[in-house]
Design a protein that fits this description.
The complex is a heterodimer of chains A (about 425) and B (about 400).
Chain A lengths: L3 E3 L2 E3 L2 E2 L4 E6 L5 E6 L5 E8 L13 H8 L9 H10 L3 E6 L4 E8 L3 H13 L5 H17 L4 H13 L12 H6 L2 H11 L6 E6 L3 H12 L19 E5 L5 E9 L7 H12 L5 H8 L7 E7 L4 E9 L4 H14 L6 H18 L3 H15 L5 H9 L3 H10 L6 E6 L6
Parallel strand pairs in A: 5-9, 10-14
Antiparallel strand pairs in A: 1-2, 3-4, 4-5, 6-8, 6-9, 7-8, 11-13, 11-14, 12-13
Helix pairs in contact in A: 1-4, 3-8, 9-12, 9-15, 10-11, 12-14
Chain B lengths: L1 E6 L5 E6 L6 E7 L13 H8 L9 H10 L3 E6 L4 E7 L4 H11 L6 H19 L2 H13 L13 H6 L2 H11 L5 E7 L3 H12 L20 E5 L6 E8 L8 H12 L5 H7 L6 E8 L4 E9 L4 H18 L3 H19 L2 H15 L5 H10 L2 H10 L6 E6 L3
Parallel strand pairs in B: 2-6, 7-11
Antiparallel strand pairs in B: 1-2, 3-5, 3-6, 4-5, 8-10, 8-11, 9-10
Helix pairs in contact in B: 3-8, 9-12, 9-15, 10-11, 12-14
Classes of the chains: A alpha+beta (about 425), B alpha+beta (about 400).
Amino acid sequence: MAPFYWGLYFFESVYDMTERFDKHVLDNGMTILGEHMSQVGSVAFTFQLPCGAAQFEKGCCGAGAIITDWIFRGAGKMDSRALIDALDGLGLHRNCSVSAGFLSMGAALEASNLEKAIGLYSDVILRPSLETEQFELSKMLAANDIISLDDDPRSKVMMALREQFYPKPLGNPAMGKLEDVESMTVDQVAAIVKQRFNLSKATFAIAGKYDFATVVKQLESLFDNEQPEIDTAIATGETGEKYTHLQHEGAQVHIGLMTSTVTVQNPDYYNVMAAVSVLSGGMSSRLFTEVREKRGLCYAVGASYNGLKQAAGISCYAGTTPDKAQETIDVIIAEFDRLGKDITESEIARAKVGLKSSLIMQSESSSSRANGIAGDHYLLGRVRSIEEIKEKLEEVSVETVTSFLKNNKFDGYTVVTIGPESVKV
Amino acid sequence: MEFKKKVLDNGLTIIGEVNEAALSAAVGFFCKTGSRDETAEISGVSHFLEHMMFKGTEKMSALQVNEEFDHLGAKFNAFTSEENTVYYAAVLPEYLQECSSLWSQLMRPSLRDDDFNIEKNVIKEEIAMYKDLPQFDVMDQCRALHFKGHPCGNSVLGTNESIDALTADQMREYFGHRYAPNNMIVACCGNFDFDGLCSLVDSACGKWTSDDAPREISTCAGSLEKTRQTKDTLVCEHICLLSGAVSMQDPRRYAGSLLSMIVGDQTGSRYFWALVDNALAEVAAMHYETMDGTGCIYSYFRCNPENAEKVMEVARNIFTELEKDGVNNDELQKAKNKVLSAITIKSEQPMGRLTNLGLNWVYSQKYRSVSDDVEAIKAVTVEDVNALIKDYPLSKFTNFTLGPKA
């Protein structure tokens, strides 16, 4: 792919039959990525900042939850109300979340409001007001969110599972720990914003209807200021307990189970995706068939791939009434253990067509694509085209999946249960 | 976009919105039946039946059905509400015919006793699951309290007792009347061939016989009762308010959806500024639900139990102010922008468009394009919203609260 000049700006563009990627790097290191979609009238963008839940110092677990609320309580010359009014006035569908490696914030919108929206986000990122009075409210909301997790055992079990499964601090809950959230000070959190809203390691991804030259020009004028060096590496430690039970006198036992697998950088990633699909891709998948259809043990049961840059796992959730909990987990583990032994041609064929159709359907949504290209850039350092993913999926076969599973046997399970009864693992 | 329609001799209506630029297509069978069409003896049957429709036909087992859908790479599911049972799938265009053929066959299921007995367990697990989700439980119970004695208050899931008592024969009897072709529609959107779809549906469903599938439509003022239920496991207060609103057939529904956005959207709404911004509640949302011949507006608050009284006081003040001074043009404009961009974004995917297309037809037997909806939203005035507030005051609400013991 030969770089070429277009107007004043330097682009690297990739063309093929169906898609076009745009890329430009600002002088300060911030990467701009884009994918034009001819069939839509919307546009979606996302800013990724090196402010992830695994990057906060000890005692600051949950800083991200406070920050994502606090930065929208006034920015630039706008107070809290003026800022929210301005964002709402553009009809933005906003999202702001924290994962292990980064904080992302963005919006989907009708394309004509893009320039104004980016302008508002530059205030939020570069000039948040960060007032003390507002900090206390953000902190209170973050603390209450953690407390209220007790009323949502299904979410709580999966959060606790990731925390036990990943080497510390990769599984730190973005929501935070109550004692940390309650004890963090305004100065501590303001310092985190100052340090970690660093543009040299930031990515801006956009998908849908936009003009790349205009976008680059605007971002350059708003964001291209010099940045200090920042280290985004995460030193990892031990994993947590293999089995944890949290007593809760609810109606069901909520079971979370996880086992390690390869990350997205690994060439075997597509074999894992197919294996997970055989296990839990559709209604003919093994977990659904064995746990729900044949035995009626659960309403909700499913497994999915859960990947970070540094580590990855296959996670599984099931919710069942206490008298069926033991049988449920036994059947689930038996299915994981059996997976490498007897995958059939038709299972792989269904997995491949399911994965490919999900891929194409996601490519119709500007939000999915903006998040997809930002995610690829973070995990792989490059953006995969839909065609490339399709080709890789085509290469998957019974032999490749089986041989991968034989050479990479599941090395034990991390299990968390919440409910009136524990299980034997 | 091109709209197409065909009605088979037995009353089954097929509608389609063709968009040749789409990368996928979505198809659904919409049956006008739900918990409001049930008697107490068969409470939960519509939803249970929805599960059973996936269990196969005389020629196909449940596993074969699931394999067939997965073989097509279909993203498929179904849902049951108080008024509708909808079966839908999104597929790549080349699989649309096969997918529609599969749904057509499944709409005449075998309803085997063995499958019925196993699936009973799954239904009871689903009931248990919602019991552990207080935000759903509180809305369900508030609805029952509001529509006390009126069919719209019937539970979609039923109870463990009603599901235990239900027989396969009762289900077959219910199916026989409610899944008549004149009580169903087939809707499709995205990239597909309408004529091809019609001939397929005609050959698969053309022989179904029509039947009477009446629905009792009567208005309900709402009980306006207030109840608080305690649960040992809870730590937060979950508060639900329910008041009356206009129906799906009423053109004022656009004003209704804007009102709920002004009062209870996630950001920038009256609830947001008075309850969430100052951390009195973590969640404060309003949702307007249009129904057949009636409608209702839900509010849901989640807060620390210590704040519950204050939250209720603030909510009452918001209602009083709205009834006294109405909404202003600025907030209406913002709400319009939010609704319009939501419509644009959702309609870009065939699957996002399907439910709206199908349900519009079910309720009004009219086609409404995305631009019809956009124009209707744009045309709403401050006066329209304020007139609606006068006719359906938010201050007249039923309240159900779930919280910990004091």
